[in-house]
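Consider today's protein:

***
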Amino acid sequence: MQIDSLVTGLDLIATFAFAIVGARIAASKGLDYGGIALIAAVASVSGGTFRNLFMGQRPPWILHSWLFASVALAVLITVIAKETKPVGRFLLALDTFGLAVATVSSANFAIANNANFVSVVALGIIGGVSGGLLRDVLCQVEPVLLHRETIGTSCFAGALIYALLNQFGAAEAITVLASGLVVVLVREVSIKFDWHLPKI
């Protein structure tokens, strides 16, 4: 599989996952249709945007404007459903999936652009958490990243595994699957057992 095709495909999946969660959170905060669309877009494209800009590349939504089709679909589903309750377990699982995909996609992109080991891990984290962080800030809720569910830790673990496996020459398919699975497992276990990083 070509690197560009892999990154583009992963970006499309993560875009929808983050957009639907962002739209739902915006709806639960009483935002209007415009606000829901804005939050969905910010939540879904910020990670890839920062990832590309840090590597001196154009953001993916400029190169592939059809990514916004995922955002539009997420907004449409949210508006039609008219659901304003807090995000439930299904959407939380979808968000976790998006987190894994975004982390893997960002680490893959970094390696494809000859980033060093530390930068691969850093960009994996940035690609995974940026959208959710900005989403929560704009919706005026305490960012999940900063206090629960070990989102940052999940992305760090997945990106680290990706960088390590790549360093040891593992097959790309194995690297992608293993690192994505680590992100999902770390977050899901932390949610199930209510694990958090220590606080002062």
